[in-house]
Amino acid sequence: MSHPTVVNLGSLNIDRVFRVAHIAAPGETIAAESLEVFAGGKGLNQSIALARAGARVYHAGKIGPDGGWLLDKLAADGVDVRRVQVGDGPTGQAIIQVDRAGENSILLWPGANAEITPEEVDAALSDVPRGAWLLVQNETSSVDYAIRRAKGLGLHVACNPAPLDDRAANYSLDLVDLLCVNQIEGRALSGRDAPDDIAAALAERLPRAEVLVTLGAAGVVYRQGSLALAEPAPQVAVCDTTAAGDTFLGYFLAGRLAGDDPRRALARACRAAALAVTRRGASDSIPQAAEVGGG
Fold it and tell me: What pTM did the predictor assign?
C-alpha cells in the first residue's frame, strides 16, 4: 500500500562532537580527546526515521552553502530534498561536549533554520495533496505559519514542539492532529505532573488530536479522546539516547499512515527507539524497518 506523503519542515544541523575528560567550566580551556562531525537536527533525524520506517517523506527546510552533504545524507535514505532551500548564511550548527560519563553540554546556533520565510513555506506546500501530512518541530522559523497554512490547504499536522520555548506556547496547537511531547514539555503545556494526567489534559484541550507523552525508559502514554493506552519500553543496554525520541515519532507516524492501529504503532515505535539507544550517534542509530519488524 502506498503511504500518504509527509512534508517535514525540519531543522538541518552540522553537529560537531568533542569528546572531553570533563565539561569545560567557565574560563577554563581544555584539550578535546577527539572530534567527530555528524548530520543532525531533530528535523533531519525525524525525516530519516520516517523514511526507514517506510513512509514517503519530503524534507523542507534551509541550509547554507556548507550544508550540501546533509542533503546527500537524507537522499541516501530515500528522502526527497527538493523542497530544501539554500541560503547565503551558514547551516545550523551544534557544538557538543561529551564527557567520559556520557554527560553533554550543547551550544546551538540555528543558522539557516531560523531564516525560513512564510513564502518558502508556501513554496514547500504548494503542490502537496489534500490529506497529506505536515510535520513540524520547534527548531525552525515560521512554524506557526506552517501549521495554519497546512490546515488551510486540507493537510493533517503533526507537531513535536521541542525544544520547548516561549514561541511554542503560542503555536496554534488547536489545529494539530498529532501532538508528541516528552514529560517535561507536556508538564509545561498542561500544568500537570503525572504522565496520565498530562495526556488527559492535553487530549481535553485538543479533542481531535492524538496525544503522545514519551517517557524514555518508561515507555509512552497515548490519548485520543477517551482512548487511553500505555506502552512500556523494551529493556535494553543503553549506549546513547540521542535521537531516540525522533526515532519513536518517525516510526509511530509512519505506522499510523500505513494503517496500523494506535496499539500496533506504539509497540513498533517503542521497539525502534529501543534499538536506537543501543547504538552511538543520532541519525546513524535509527534502525531500518526490517530490524524492527511488524507490530
Answer: 0.94
